[in-house]
Design goal:
With 383 residues, the chain is α/β, with parallel strands linked by helices. Helix content is 45%, strand content 15%. The protein has 15 helices and eleven strands. The strands form two sheets. Strands 4-3-2-1-5-6-7 form a seven-stranded parallel β-sheet, with helices on both faces. It has a four-stranded mixed β-sheet with strand order 9-8-10-11, with helices on one face. The longest helix has 18 residues. Bound molecules: nicotinamide-adenine-dinucleotide and magnesium ion (MG).
Length: 383
Protein backbone atom coordinates (compact mmCIF):
# COMPACT_ATOMS: atom_id res chain seq x y z
CA UNK A 1 0.00 0.00 0.00
CA UNK A 2 1.45 3.35 -1.03
CA UNK A 3 0.20 6.26 1.03
CA UNK A 4 -0.54 9.38 -0.97
CA UNK A 5 -0.94 13.07 -0.10
CA UNK A 6 -2.71 15.10 -2.79
CA UNK A 7 -2.17 18.87 -2.86
CA UNK A 8 -4.71 20.57 -5.14
CA UNK A 9 -7.32 17.81 -4.77
CA UNK A 10 -10.26 19.86 -6.11
CA UNK A 11 -8.60 20.88 -9.40
CA UNK A 12 -8.41 19.28 -12.82
CA UNK A 13 -5.28 17.20 -12.04
CA UNK A 14 -6.75 16.50 -8.61
CA UNK A 15 -9.88 15.04 -10.24
CA UNK A 16 -7.85 12.81 -12.57
CA UNK A 17 -5.76 11.67 -9.61
CA UNK A 18 -8.93 10.68 -7.72
CA UNK A 19 -9.96 8.48 -10.68
CA UNK A 20 -6.60 6.70 -10.47
CA UNK A 21 -6.89 6.34 -6.68
CA UNK A 22 -10.43 4.97 -6.99
CA UNK A 23 -9.32 2.36 -9.54
CA UNK A 24 -6.31 1.20 -7.53
CA UNK A 25 -7.61 1.07 -3.96
CA UNK A 26 -5.67 -2.14 -3.42
CA UNK A 27 -2.36 -0.34 -4.01
CA UNK A 28 -2.91 3.34 -3.20
CA UNK A 29 -4.36 4.96 -0.08
CA UNK A 30 -5.16 8.66 0.14
CA UNK A 31 -4.01 9.90 3.56
CA UNK A 32 -4.00 13.70 3.10
CA UNK A 33 -5.66 16.28 0.83
CA UNK A 34 -5.46 20.05 0.37
CA UNK A 35 -7.24 22.71 -1.63
CA UNK A 36 -7.45 26.46 -1.66
CA UNK A 37 -11.10 27.15 -0.88
CA UNK A 38 -13.62 24.59 -2.20
CA UNK A 39 -14.48 23.14 1.21
CA UNK A 40 -17.58 21.18 0.21
CA UNK A 41 -15.73 19.36 -2.56
CA UNK A 42 -12.79 18.69 -0.28
CA UNK A 43 -15.12 17.34 2.43
CA UNK A 44 -16.76 15.00 -0.12
CA UNK A 45 -13.32 13.64 -1.05
CA UNK A 46 -12.51 13.09 2.65
CA UNK A 47 -15.75 11.19 3.11
CA UNK A 48 -15.33 9.02 0.02
CA UNK A 49 -11.66 8.13 0.61
CA UNK A 50 -11.77 8.22 4.44
CA UNK A 51 -8.93 10.75 4.46
CA UNK A 52 -7.39 11.43 7.87
CA UNK A 53 -5.90 14.89 7.21
CA UNK A 54 -7.15 17.87 5.19
CA UNK A 55 -5.99 21.44 4.74
CA UNK A 56 -7.82 24.45 3.32
CA UNK A 57 -5.39 27.17 2.36
CA UNK A 58 -8.01 29.88 2.71
CA UNK A 59 -8.90 30.85 6.27
CA UNK A 60 -12.34 32.07 5.18
CA UNK A 61 -13.13 28.69 3.63
CA UNK A 62 -11.88 26.97 6.78
CA UNK A 63 -14.21 29.03 8.99
CA UNK A 64 -17.14 28.36 6.65
CA UNK A 65 -16.35 24.63 6.63
CA UNK A 66 -16.21 24.53 10.43
CA UNK A 67 -19.52 26.39 10.65
CA UNK A 68 -21.19 24.11 8.10
CA UNK A 69 -19.80 20.95 9.72
CA UNK A 70 -18.89 19.68 6.24
CA UNK A 71 -16.06 17.37 7.18
CA UNK A 72 -16.40 13.89 8.70
CA UNK A 73 -15.30 13.75 12.35
CA UNK A 74 -12.52 11.30 11.41
CA UNK A 75 -10.79 13.99 9.30
CA UNK A 76 -8.47 16.41 11.03
CA UNK A 77 -8.98 19.77 9.28
CA UNK A 78 -6.41 22.60 9.39
CA UNK A 79 -5.81 25.81 7.47
CA UNK A 80 -3.02 28.04 6.19
CA UNK A 81 0.42 27.78 4.62
CA UNK A 82 2.14 26.20 7.62
CA UNK A 83 -0.53 23.48 7.75
CA UNK A 84 0.07 22.83 4.04
CA UNK A 85 3.77 22.21 4.74
CA UNK A 86 2.93 19.87 7.65
CA UNK A 87 0.48 17.96 5.46
CA UNK A 88 3.14 17.58 2.75
CA UNK A 89 5.50 16.07 5.32
CA UNK A 90 2.92 13.85 7.06
CA UNK A 91 4.88 10.99 8.73
CA UNK A 92 2.44 8.46 7.25
CA UNK A 93 2.88 9.48 3.60
CA UNK A 94 5.12 7.85 0.98
CA UNK A 95 4.44 10.13 -1.98
CA UNK A 96 3.06 13.66 -2.44
CA UNK A 97 1.29 14.56 -5.68
CA UNK A 98 1.70 18.30 -6.09
CA UNK A 99 -1.24 19.48 -8.22
CA UNK A 100 -1.61 23.02 -6.93
CA UNK A 101 -1.41 25.87 -9.45
CA UNK A 102 1.05 28.78 -9.27
CA UNK A 103 3.95 28.99 -6.83
CA UNK A 104 2.15 28.38 -3.50
CA UNK A 105 3.21 24.74 -3.72
CA UNK A 106 6.94 25.50 -3.60
CA UNK A 107 7.47 25.49 0.18
CA UNK A 108 5.22 22.45 0.78
CA UNK A 109 7.16 20.59 -1.93
CA UNK A 110 10.49 21.45 -0.30
CA UNK A 111 9.06 20.38 3.08
CA UNK A 112 7.96 17.05 1.59
CA UNK A 113 11.39 16.46 0.06
CA UNK A 114 13.03 17.34 3.34
CA UNK A 115 10.86 14.74 5.06
CA UNK A 116 12.04 12.14 2.52
CA UNK A 117 8.80 11.81 0.53
CA UNK A 118 8.79 10.96 -3.17
CA UNK A 119 7.25 13.74 -5.25
CA UNK A 120 4.93 13.43 -8.24
CA UNK A 121 5.10 16.90 -9.69
CA UNK A 122 2.31 18.31 -11.85
CA UNK A 123 2.67 21.92 -10.69
CA UNK A 124 5.12 23.32 -13.24
CA UNK A 125 5.18 26.94 -12.04
CA UNK A 126 6.88 26.02 -8.78
CA UNK A 127 9.64 24.22 -10.68
CA UNK A 128 10.11 27.15 -13.05
CA UNK A 129 10.51 29.44 -10.04
CA UNK A 130 12.56 27.23 -7.72
CA UNK A 131 13.86 24.45 -10.00
CA UNK A 132 17.51 24.68 -8.94
CA UNK A 133 16.58 24.33 -5.27
CA UNK A 134 13.94 21.63 -5.74
CA UNK A 135 16.23 19.46 -7.88
CA UNK A 136 19.19 19.94 -5.54
CA UNK A 137 17.08 19.04 -2.48
CA UNK A 138 15.62 15.95 -4.16
CA UNK A 139 19.12 14.81 -5.13
CA UNK A 140 20.48 15.45 -1.62
CA UNK A 141 17.61 13.64 0.08
CA UNK A 142 17.62 10.85 -2.53
CA UNK A 143 13.89 11.12 -3.14
CA UNK A 144 12.24 10.54 -6.51
CA UNK A 145 11.08 13.59 -8.45
CA UNK A 146 8.55 12.00 -10.79
CA UNK A 147 7.43 14.27 -13.65
CA UNK A 148 3.63 14.25 -13.95
CA UNK A 149 3.28 16.89 -16.67
CA UNK A 150 2.50 14.68 -19.69
CA UNK A 151 5.47 15.80 -21.83
CA UNK A 152 7.99 15.34 -19.04
CA UNK A 153 6.42 12.07 -18.02
CA UNK A 154 6.84 10.89 -21.63
CA UNK A 155 10.49 11.95 -21.66
CA UNK A 156 11.07 10.33 -18.26
CA UNK A 157 9.65 7.04 -19.59
CA UNK A 158 11.77 7.24 -22.79
CA UNK A 159 14.91 8.01 -20.77
CA UNK A 160 14.57 4.99 -18.50
CA UNK A 161 16.72 2.89 -20.78
CA UNK A 162 18.96 5.60 -22.27
CA UNK A 163 21.48 7.59 -20.24
CA UNK A 164 21.31 11.34 -20.75
CA UNK A 165 24.82 11.46 -22.32
CA UNK A 166 23.44 9.45 -25.25
CA UNK A 167 20.68 11.99 -25.82
CA UNK A 168 20.99 14.59 -28.55
CA UNK A 169 17.85 16.57 -27.76
CA UNK A 170 14.42 16.49 -26.18
CA UNK A 171 11.49 17.43 -28.41
CA UNK A 172 8.36 18.54 -26.56
CA UNK A 173 5.07 18.22 -28.40
CA UNK A 174 2.50 21.03 -28.18
CA UNK A 175 -1.09 21.07 -29.36
CA UNK A 176 -0.69 24.63 -30.65
CA UNK A 177 -3.68 25.64 -28.56
CA UNK A 178 -7.18 26.65 -29.49
CA UNK A 179 -6.17 29.49 -31.88
CA UNK A 180 -3.64 27.55 -33.97
CA UNK A 181 -5.62 28.25 -37.13
CA UNK A 182 -7.26 31.53 -36.15
CA UNK A 183 -6.20 34.36 -38.51
CA UNK A 184 -3.69 36.60 -36.72
CA UNK A 185 -5.89 39.62 -37.34
CA UNK A 186 -8.63 38.03 -35.17
CA UNK A 187 -6.41 37.30 -32.14
CA UNK A 188 -6.97 40.81 -30.78
CA UNK A 189 -10.64 39.85 -30.30
CA UNK A 190 -9.97 36.73 -28.17
CA UNK A 191 -12.01 36.81 -24.93
CA UNK A 192 -11.38 34.93 -21.65
CA UNK A 193 -14.38 32.72 -22.47
CA UNK A 194 -12.74 31.68 -25.76
CA UNK A 195 -9.28 31.22 -24.23
CA UNK A 196 -10.45 28.93 -21.42
CA UNK A 197 -11.76 26.22 -23.81
CA UNK A 198 -9.27 23.65 -25.13
CA UNK A 199 -9.96 21.22 -28.02
CA UNK A 200 -8.03 18.20 -26.61
CA UNK A 201 -7.52 18.66 -22.88
CA UNK A 202 -9.89 19.49 -20.03
CA UNK A 203 -7.77 21.57 -17.65
CA UNK A 204 -7.86 24.45 -15.16
CA UNK A 205 -8.33 28.00 -16.54
CA UNK A 206 -4.73 29.23 -16.10
CA UNK A 207 -3.06 26.38 -18.01
CA UNK A 208 -5.75 26.55 -20.71
CA UNK A 209 -4.90 30.20 -21.44
CA UNK A 210 -1.19 29.27 -21.28
CA UNK A 211 -1.82 26.59 -23.91
CA UNK A 212 -3.34 29.15 -26.26
CA UNK A 213 -0.38 31.54 -25.95
CA UNK A 214 2.09 28.63 -25.72
CA UNK A 215 3.46 30.15 -22.52
CA UNK A 216 2.61 26.65 -21.25
CA UNK A 217 5.21 25.17 -23.60
CA UNK A 218 7.59 27.94 -22.56
CA UNK A 219 7.17 26.95 -18.90
CA UNK A 220 7.60 23.31 -19.92
CA UNK A 221 10.92 24.03 -21.69
CA UNK A 222 12.19 25.49 -18.42
CA UNK A 223 10.68 22.57 -16.50
CA UNK A 224 12.53 20.15 -18.83
CA UNK A 225 15.76 22.04 -18.28
CA UNK A 226 15.51 21.51 -14.51
CA UNK A 227 14.26 17.93 -14.65
CA UNK A 228 16.66 16.57 -17.27
CA UNK A 229 19.58 19.02 -17.09
CA UNK A 230 19.74 20.03 -20.78
CA UNK A 231 20.35 23.59 -21.99
CA UNK A 232 17.97 25.57 -24.21
CA UNK A 233 19.69 24.63 -27.51
CA UNK A 234 18.95 20.93 -26.87
CA UNK A 235 15.26 21.51 -26.12
CA UNK A 236 12.86 21.79 -29.04
CA UNK A 237 9.13 22.15 -29.58
CA UNK A 238 7.01 20.63 -32.32
CA UNK A 239 3.32 21.29 -32.90
CA UNK A 240 1.26 18.10 -32.77
CA UNK A 241 -2.44 19.03 -32.80
CA UNK A 242 -3.77 15.58 -31.75
CA UNK A 243 -1.85 15.45 -28.40
CA UNK A 244 -1.28 11.70 -28.67
CA UNK A 245 2.53 11.67 -28.86
CA UNK A 246 3.48 13.33 -25.58
CA UNK A 247 7.13 14.06 -26.46
CA UNK A 248 10.23 12.65 -28.15
CA UNK A 249 13.77 11.84 -27.08
CA UNK A 250 16.26 12.05 -29.94
CA UNK A 251 19.36 9.91 -29.36
CA UNK A 252 22.85 10.86 -30.63
CA UNK A 253 22.60 8.11 -33.28
CA UNK A 254 19.48 9.68 -34.76
CA UNK A 255 16.94 7.23 -33.27
CA UNK A 256 13.90 8.95 -31.86
CA UNK A 257 11.85 7.48 -28.98
CA UNK A 258 8.32 8.56 -28.15
CA UNK A 259 5.57 7.82 -25.63
CA UNK A 260 1.95 7.69 -26.78
CA UNK A 261 -1.36 7.62 -24.92
CA UNK A 262 -4.73 9.37 -25.29
CA UNK A 263 -4.89 13.03 -24.20
CA UNK A 264 -5.87 12.37 -20.59
CA UNK A 265 -3.72 13.05 -17.54
CA UNK A 266 -4.72 9.79 -15.83
CA UNK A 267 -1.96 7.94 -17.73
CA UNK A 268 0.90 10.13 -16.46
CA UNK A 269 -0.58 10.40 -12.94
CA UNK A 270 -0.95 6.63 -12.64
CA UNK A 271 2.58 6.10 -13.94
CA UNK A 272 3.94 8.38 -11.20
CA UNK A 273 1.78 7.11 -8.33
CA UNK A 274 2.47 3.43 -9.01
CA UNK A 275 6.10 3.92 -10.11
CA UNK A 276 8.04 1.71 -10.69
CA UNK A 277 5.10 -0.70 -10.99
CA UNK A 278 2.47 -0.68 -13.70
CA UNK A 279 -1.20 -1.69 -13.69
CA UNK A 280 -4.12 -1.52 -16.15
CA UNK A 281 -5.14 2.04 -17.04
CA UNK A 282 -8.38 3.60 -15.80
CA UNK A 283 -9.50 4.43 -19.34
CA UNK A 284 -8.93 2.80 -22.73
CA UNK A 285 -5.67 3.49 -24.54
CA UNK A 286 -5.17 4.13 -28.28
CA UNK A 287 -6.90 1.66 -30.60
CA UNK A 288 -4.87 1.29 -33.80
CA UNK A 289 -7.69 -0.56 -35.54
CA UNK A 290 -9.51 2.79 -35.68
CA UNK A 291 -8.41 5.63 -37.96
CA UNK A 292 -5.69 7.72 -36.34
CA UNK A 293 -3.90 10.65 -37.86
CA UNK A 294 -0.77 12.16 -36.31
CA UNK A 295 0.48 15.49 -37.65
CA UNK A 296 3.63 17.41 -36.77
CA UNK A 297 4.78 20.89 -37.78
CA UNK A 298 7.37 23.40 -36.63
CA UNK A 299 5.99 26.24 -34.49
CA UNK A 300 5.78 29.68 -36.01
CA UNK A 301 7.50 31.83 -33.39
CA UNK A 302 5.97 35.05 -34.74
CA UNK A 303 2.59 33.59 -33.86
CA UNK A 304 3.69 32.51 -30.37
CA UNK A 305 5.89 35.28 -28.89
CA UNK A 306 5.50 33.77 -25.38
CA UNK A 307 7.43 30.72 -26.58
CA UNK A 308 10.33 32.78 -27.85
CA UNK A 309 10.38 34.80 -24.62
CA UNK A 310 10.69 31.54 -22.64
CA UNK A 311 13.82 30.59 -24.60
CA UNK A 312 15.16 34.07 -23.87
CA UNK A 313 14.42 33.71 -20.14
CA UNK A 314 16.03 30.27 -20.02
CA UNK A 315 19.14 31.44 -21.89
CA UNK A 316 19.54 34.45 -19.61
CA UNK A 317 19.62 32.02 -16.65
CA UNK A 318 19.55 33.03 -12.96
CA UNK A 319 16.25 34.69 -12.09
CA UNK A 320 15.12 34.86 -15.77
CA UNK A 321 12.69 31.91 -15.53
CA UNK A 322 11.26 33.26 -12.24
CA UNK A 323 10.54 36.63 -13.89
CA UNK A 324 8.99 34.94 -16.92
CA UNK A 325 6.70 32.83 -14.74
CA UNK A 326 5.58 35.65 -12.42
CA UNK A 327 4.93 38.05 -15.30
CA UNK A 328 2.95 35.43 -17.19
CA UNK A 329 0.88 34.62 -14.10
CA UNK A 330 -0.09 38.28 -13.64
CA UNK A 331 -0.68 38.77 -17.37
CA UNK A 332 -3.13 35.83 -17.38
CA UNK A 333 -4.86 37.10 -14.22
CA UNK A 334 -5.23 40.56 -15.83
CA UNK A 335 -6.51 39.04 -19.06
CA UNK A 336 -9.07 36.84 -17.23
CA UNK A 337 -10.21 39.94 -15.30
CA UNK A 338 -10.75 41.65 -18.72
CA UNK A 339 -8.24 44.33 -17.75
CA UNK A 340 -5.89 43.69 -20.67
CA UNK A 341 -6.27 42.10 -24.12
CA UNK A 342 -5.12 38.62 -25.15
CA UNK A 343 -2.28 40.05 -27.26
CA UNK A 344 -1.06 42.06 -24.25
CA UNK A 345 0.10 38.88 -22.47
CA UNK A 346 3.50 38.64 -24.26
CA UNK A 347 3.93 42.43 -23.95
CA UNK A 348 3.64 42.18 -20.16
CA UNK A 349 6.17 39.32 -20.04
CA UNK A 350 8.67 41.13 -22.28
CA UNK A 351 8.34 44.35 -20.29
CA UNK A 352 8.98 42.51 -17.00
CA UNK A 353 11.95 40.55 -18.37
CA UNK A 354 13.55 43.86 -19.42
CA UNK A 355 12.74 45.70 -16.22
CA UNK A 356 13.36 43.31 -13.28
CA UNK A 357 16.92 42.77 -12.08
CA UNK A 358 18.35 39.50 -13.35
CA UNK A 359 20.22 37.91 -10.44
CA UNK A 360 22.82 35.36 -11.53
CA UNK A 361 22.68 32.60 -8.89
CA UNK A 362 19.73 33.57 -6.68
CA UNK A 363 19.05 31.98 -3.30
CA UNK A 364 15.55 30.71 -2.61
CA UNK A 365 14.67 33.89 -0.69
CA UNK A 366 16.02 36.03 -3.54
CA UNK A 367 13.90 34.07 -6.02
CA UNK A 368 10.81 34.63 -3.90
CA UNK A 369 11.64 38.36 -3.80
CA UNK A 370 12.15 38.38 -7.58
CA UNK A 371 8.79 36.63 -7.92
CA UNK A 372 7.10 39.42 -5.93
CA UNK A 373 8.95 42.19 -7.76
CA UNK A 374 8.13 40.74 -11.18
CA UNK A 375 4.47 40.41 -10.18
CA UNK A 376 4.36 44.10 -9.17
CA UNK A 377 6.14 45.11 -12.39
CA UNK A 378 3.72 43.10 -14.51
CA UNK A 379 0.83 44.65 -12.61
CA UNK A 380 2.14 48.18 -13.12
CA UNK A 381 2.31 48.14 -16.94
CA UNK A 382 -0.50 50.33 -18.29
CA UNK A 383 -1.84 49.14 -21.64
P1 LIG B 1 -6.81 23.86 -11.29
O1 LIG B 1 -6.95 25.33 -11.24
O2 LIG B 1 -7.87 23.05 -11.91
O3 LIG B 1 -6.62 23.30 -9.79
C1 LIG B 1 -5.71 23.84 -8.88
C2 LIG B 1 -5.83 23.17 -7.52
O4 LIG B 1 -4.88 23.78 -6.63
C3 LIG B 1 -7.20 23.34 -6.84
O5 LIG B 1 -7.47 22.19 -6.08
C4 LIG B 1 -6.99 24.54 -5.90
O6 LIG B 1 -7.84 24.50 -4.78
C5 LIG B 1 -5.54 24.30 -5.48
N1 LIG B 1 -4.86 25.55 -5.09
C6 LIG B 1 -4.74 26.69 -5.81
N2 LIG B 1 -4.04 27.61 -5.11
C7 LIG B 1 -3.70 27.03 -3.92
C8 LIG B 1 -3.01 27.46 -2.79
N3 LIG B 1 -2.52 28.70 -2.70
N4 LIG B 1 -2.84 26.58 -1.76
C9 LIG B 1 -3.36 25.34 -1.82
N5 LIG B 1 -4.04 24.87 -2.88
C10 LIG B 1 -4.21 25.71 -3.92
O7 LIG B 1 -5.39 23.57 -11.97
P2 LIG B 1 -4.95 22.27 -12.81
O8 LIG B 1 -5.31 22.43 -14.22
O9 LIG B 1 -5.34 21.04 -12.07
O10 LIG B 1 -3.37 22.41 -12.76
C11 LIG B 1 -2.60 22.16 -11.60
C12 LIG B 1 -1.13 22.23 -11.96
O11 LIG B 1 -0.81 21.14 -12.84
C13 LIG B 1 -0.72 23.49 -12.70
O12 LIG B 1 0.57 23.88 -12.31
C14 LIG B 1 -0.72 23.08 -14.15
O13 LIG B 1 0.17 23.84 -14.93
C15 LIG B 1 -0.25 21.65 -14.04
N6 LIG B 1 -0.71 20.77 -15.13
C16 LIG B 1 -2.03 20.63 -15.37
C17 LIG B 1 -2.48 19.80 -16.39
C18 LIG B 1 -3.95 19.58 -16.64
O14 LIG B 1 -4.30 18.79 -17.49
N7 LIG B 1 -4.85 20.23 -15.93
C19 LIG B 1 -1.55 19.13 -17.18
C20 LIG B 1 -0.20 19.28 -16.90
C21 LIG B 1 0.21 20.09 -15.87
MG1 LIG C 1 2.11 19.54 -20.36
Amino acid sequence: MKKVVLLGATGSIGGSALRVLRAHKDRLQLVGVAAKGKHRELADICREFKVGHAVLQSERAYIEAKKAGDFPSSTQLNCGSQALESLASLPDADIVLVATVGTAGLRPTLAAIDAGKDIALANKELLVLGGAHVVEAAHRKEVRLLPTDSEHNAIFQCLERSPIDQVDKLILTASGGQFRNTPKSELSQVTPEMATQHPNWSMGPKITVDSATMANKGLELIEAHWLFGLEADRLEVVIHPQSVVHSFVQQIDGSILAQLSPPSMTFAIQHCLLYPDRAPSVEPTIDFTKALQLDFEAPNYARYPCLELAYEALRSGGAGPAIYNAANEVAVERFLAKEVAYLDIPKIIEYSLNKVELLVAPSLDQLLETNNEARLTAQSLKL
